[in-house]
């Protein structure tokens, strides 16, 4: 999947679910999936489309996950090969690896309104891991890692503003957040239950194992 330069909402309409690509806007009435006249796949004559093939069903599951986490095809296959080498279930291991990405952690801590914004914040050096600047959004986090904000007025103002707009944070059990200090800690590795997107990972494994 190359970089998407078109409307983000088209991706959500194509997958039929909210991929949370625009942050808080996805929870408002402006989301196309909330409008009955826009709640259908993009493109002309979408109502004429036939039933998907077995391959098409599996492909849609993979595309859904790639777009949700914002990874390219080459990155996704690298994560899949890493998951295959683990002793755990390949599908669950794949989703756990994607959850451990730094941009996903920054987003789930509430430091950014979306994963795209989280990637930008990481790339611009606003995020520190264990006291050191990490500018690679795909860096995999481990249990015990501490996520902090760069000690500069600009970075602190940016993250503080986002936390204030977010309101009361709802952080998952494998993360902890100190909003006052703008610090987050990885308490444990994410499990399959921590993945919020509805996906059948066994279909992805069947497709990528060919």
Can you describe this structure?
β1 (127-129) and β2 form a beta hairpin. α3 (73-84) packs across α4 (90-99) and α5 crosses α6. The protein is of the alpha+beta class and 210 residues long. The chain has a domain at 101-186: Structural Genomics Hypothetical 15.5 Kd Protein In mrcA-pckA Intergenic Region, Chain A (Roll). Helix content is 40%, strand content 8%. It is globular and about 55 Å long. The protein has helices at 9-15, 54-69, 73-84, 90-99, 102-108, 115-123, 153-166, 201-208; strands at residues 127-129, 132-133, 146-149, 175-178, 183-186.
What structural keywords apply?
8 helices, about 210 residues, 5 strands, Structural Genomics Hypothetical 15.5 Kd Protein In mrcA-pckA Intergenic Region, Chain A, alpha+beta, about 10% strand, single chain, 5-stranded antiparallel beta sheet
């Amino acid at each position: 999947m190359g970089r998407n330069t078109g409307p983000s909402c088209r991706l959500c309409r194509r997958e039929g679910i909210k991929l949370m690509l625009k942050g808080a806007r996805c929870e408002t009435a402006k989301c196309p999936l909330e409008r009955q006249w826009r709640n259908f796949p993009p493109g002309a004559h979408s109502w004429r489309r036939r039933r998907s093939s077995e391959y098409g069903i599996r492909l849609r599951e993979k595309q859904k996950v790639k777009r949700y986490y914002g990874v390219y095809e080459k990155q996704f296959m690298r994560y899949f090969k890493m998951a295959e080498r683990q002793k755990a279930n390949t599908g669950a291991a794949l989703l756990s690896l994607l959850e451990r990405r730094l941009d996903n952690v920054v987003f789930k801590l509430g430091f950014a309104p979306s994963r795209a914004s989280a990637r930008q914040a990481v790339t611009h050096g606003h995020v520190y891991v264990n006291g050191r600047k990490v500018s690679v959004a795909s860096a995999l986090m481990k249990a015990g890692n501490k996520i902090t904000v760069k000690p500069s007025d600009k970075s602190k103002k940016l993250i503080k503003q986002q936390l204030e707009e977010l309101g009361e944070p709802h952080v998952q059990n494998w993360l902890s957040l100190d909003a006052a200090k703008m610090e987050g800690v990885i308490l444990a590795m994410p499990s399959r239950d921590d993945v919020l997107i509805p996906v059948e990972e066994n279909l992805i494994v069947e497709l990528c194992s060919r």
